[in-house]
From TrEMBL, chain A:
PROSITE patterns: CYTC (PS51007). It comes from the Bacteria. Keywords: Heme, Iron, Metal-binding. The keyword Magnesium does not apply. The keyword Metal-binding applies. This is Cytochrome c55X.
UniProtKB/TrEMBL annotation, chain B:
Keywords: Signal. PANTHER family: DIHYDRO-HEME D1 DEHYDROGENASE (PTHR47197:SF3), PROTEIN NIRF (PTHR47197). Residues 1-18 form the signal peptide. This is Protein NirF.
Amino acid sequence: MLVMTAVLAKAGLAGEPSQERQSTLRNMLNHDCGACHGLTLKGGLGPALLPEVLAGKPDDFLISTILNGREGTAMPPWQPFMNRDEAAWLVGVLRKPEH
Amino acid sequence: MIKLLPLIALLFSLNAIAEPRATGDLGIVIEREDGNALIINTTEHKRLAKIEKLGDLSHASVVFSRDQRYAYVFGRDGGLTKIDMLKDAIDKRIIQAGNSIGGAISQDGKLIAVSNYTPGGVKVFSAETLELVADIPSDYGEGLRSKVVGLVDAPGQRFVFSLFDAGEIWMADFKNPKAPVIKKFPNIGKQPYDALMSPDGHYYIAGLFGEPGLALLDLWNTEAGVKHILPDYGKDDEKLPVYKMPHLEGWAVAGDYVFAPAIGQHKVLVIDKNTWELHDTIAVAGQPVFVMARPDARHVWVNFAFPDNHQVQIIDVKDLSLHKTLSPGKGVLHMEFTPRGEQVWVALRDDNQLVVYDTDTLQEITRLPANKPNGIFFSSRAHKIGL
């Protein structure tokens, strides 16, 4: 558990996006991710992205899903629009109960 | 005289309340983040009222009663709200499912059907009371229930819809609302993501996400089953990422041609309506989301998925060429033509605005504020099959 917390903290600190970038990413999360996963992230054509749903899934898996998309599903790669640190930051946002 | 004063005052106030309002040129604009519906007047370009607390409207659609008094709003969270456009108020509201995508009104205007993701299926309600009339779970195997998309009304008091996970089209006949008759068309193709009904109620077409092409059901000849059209389109081309699912709404037909968004290609498909083969493709600015014909079908307007969603392109149907590219603002999510098409309203989500264009000169007429608008629906839809 301690290790995991440390890893999470590291993922968060590694390259925390600027305030302005955070607000762009949040807007993207609400509206562009939200187009399929729902504004409240309870799911739509895409699965729900609530903390309890993501709990069992490692950071690397989620970051890679965001960046590379998922074959055979409607999930596209977001790599052209964000870097790894930003995807990691988004995963951190998703893991928090309120965002 | 003194005694008469209150009576006169009463008469005046009654007169004010009874100020008549016609609804044929009204519309509903959805504010997705706030969960509001704005009632607007399309002749005067005015916001008339804001109806609040309609839940999660991050994806929402609206149908209208045939008397054009009521608007039925289908919310993402399973909310179904009946708005009285004469009283600027909610008439009735229910939560009918956990996660839903859209709805339709029956040919006779008496039934409202909603397509649901969770739990998957279609629920049908009385348009008057919103009481449940029928529940059609989208079961397609042991413990499997599909998300339902592309629900439309069809002539003969029917609803037609597609099962995203199952790859099926179902047709439900509601002539007897207590005992609907359901006909299923299996194996129509992988992952139908949305569908449309031709304005004459003749053809139902579902777009496929999981494989190339579209699924076509001829309602004049349902015995023939569903035909997979354009099965080879783009098969050998690299599929570009799709950052927003296209919508198949407002069938764009002009003469012999049908216009539809390609999936994973920055193109609009032009399909020959007689042979159902690809006639041409038109290169556009991005992944098309809405491909909508102006009511006179001379032009086809196209908007795009992220990151090209600041533009709108207009195709000239006369020679299938790109006529003009407009840059109305950030986050173009939806467009709606006035009933006879002289103007179009465009929703700009990220600019918090609605912009109205003259569709002939392509000049901007006005802008109205709206908070994160995503859908624009005019009451003229009340009298259109499939909308």
